[in-house]
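Much of our argument rests on the idea that a fold can be written as discrete symbols. This step matters because it turns folding into a mapping between discrete strings. The record that follows shows the chain in one-letter code together with its fold in token form.
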Amino acid sequence: MTELSVTITAASDGPAFRKILYGPQTRPTNYVPDNFLSSLQRNVNVRPHTYLNLLLNALPVTGFIAVLALFLALFGLLLEGTLPAAALVLLAGIVFVVGWIGYEAMGRTSQATKAVKSAILVTTFLLSLSPILRTLSQSTSSDTIYALATFLFLLSLLLFPSPYKTAGHIATTTSVSASLVLASRLPGSEDVFALLLLAVLAFSLFPILSERLRTTSTGPYILFTVLLSLSPLYAMSFLQLGGTSLIPAYAIIICAVTFGGPAALLYSQRFKNEIRGPWDPAVPLIRPMKGGL
């Protein structure tokens, strides 16, 4: 075995210190040379961020918050009787057709037949089970229902932007589960069908369309997110929550997540101090053996 050694010249008198694993040493094991910190390096592997880059990375979170706010606003309108269920079903159908056309336009292969079959299957399934789903948790108190729905939506919000597929699937499952829980508060089966159809579009199909648009073209994706963020404001303007408006709270949350979060991360970057030096453990280079074992 060839002995690889690195010689460090000591400032004091005596033989040079050699960084070797095997072999006789001329210094004690706890010896530290005077020039040990001369190879100190700071933030070597740190990639500096820009505000624009962080802003673009925050848009998926902004879009999901906007979708969640729009869903809750439409649920409130259904609960108050302001929005007819038929109108919401028609709106969901239009959104599905427009989103499907946009998704097909950005893709290389057409999946029209598969998409139509899936849409018909989901619609028929929800329509047939709406009376059962409405009474599924009807006996539970409203306080418990709203607390459980809040917990599930917060969990989906934490898991949605994750790059891991398992976390994304859990986020979709928790969002649809929260929608099922909220559906028990609606008065009629047609309202339940409309809400669950909206939940499938918002929490199952929207992430697919949003990710395709984000990876395809940045400009249209920014415009899409801006329009999506403004849509809950229109729906919230019709809510009658005892004279209380949710628009200021929603606007503050959107601005804080979209602009405040990247700014805070960019500000904290100046305090990052990654130190590297000769004390770092060696990284083994494992090469496959010729001819196998």
About this structure: The helical segments are 51-80, 85-106, 112-134, 142-159, 165-183, 189-216, 218-236, 247-268.
